[in-house]
Amino acid sequence: MKIVSTSNSEGLSSKISSILDVPLARISRRRFADGELYVRLEEPLDEAILVGSTYPDSGIIDILLTADASLNAGVKKPILLIPYFGYARQDAMFQPYEAVSARVLSNLFKEKFEKIFVINMHSPEGMAFLGKKGEEIRAEPVIGKKVKEDGNDLVISPDDGFKEEGENISKVAGLDSIYLNKKRVSDTKVEITIPEGISVRDKVVALTDDMISTGGTILESSKVLKQNGAKAINVYCVHGLFVSGTSKYAGFVDSISTTDTVEGPFSKMTVSEIAASSLRKYI
Ligand code: R5P
């Protein structure tokens, strides 16, 4: 058994490899002159767990080629761990004739893999596309532990989409949780209001979400919470994409902590232990 990493998940793969005491496979990758990816396993393999996120887009082709190389190297029943499943937010046709990207990617992976683990898929609808092969690994216990360590007073989710997860985080942290009202105006703009009767005055708030993409949700929520007297705002999310960089958060929030499903400057929490414990039964 070997852990086979795509290019975007090397840090997490190496942590999982140490925890499980399963070596990393040796792989060659290079780009052809036109930018196309070349992948070759440098050794024969019989069993493998492939680790790779579908973000950015190049991660998708990396997973598919690495899977094919693994099959050609002798792997019979490859297992896939997707730390961050990008394209999962389009999990239905919200308007007629739209592509349902979560289904498209799920179908591609179901063809190649025996079992597919995903860390915090965006929605149960997205997860359903993976059928019996899919299994979700939830990062709320990891976030709850950090929220507790950081001395927060209250857990707040920006909308009801993360309400249940926020409650689960708050249980681990031993705190109360509430959620805000969010209205999405465009891809980059949201409107946030605090529900009536809720006070955040003088509270150290743990603002939790599944992902930070443009940051619109987190920044707008922080602005409203500060205007309503919050003492400090610590932000926690599973997947930190930060598509427009990280500098704009300074001054608006007091700290940001993400997991390492997408590796970046705020990856202060690791999902390696929870991933390893789900994968352990396959080694
Ligand atoms: C929405 O349903 C998600 O839970 C996140 O709140 C959202 O995707 C974050 O996106 P952004 O950072 O662009 O506001």
How does this model look, in words?
The protein is of the alpha/beta class. It has 2 domains: 149 residues, Rossmann fold; 119 residues, Rossmann fold (3-Layer(aba) Sandwich). Helix content is 30%, strand content 24%. It has 8 helices and 14 strands. The strands form 4 sheets. A 5-stranded parallel beta sheet has the order 1-4-5-6-7, sandwiched between helices. It has a 5-stranded parallel beta sheet with strand order 9-8-12-13-14, sandwiched between helices. A two-stranded antiparallel sheet has the order 2-3. It is globular, with a radius of gyration of 20 Å. The model has no long low-confidence stretch (mean pLDDT 96). Bound molecules: ribose-5-phosphate. The site of ribose-5-phosphate has 13 residues, from strand 12 and helix 7.
In short:
This protein has 283 residues and is α/β, with parallel strands linked by helices.
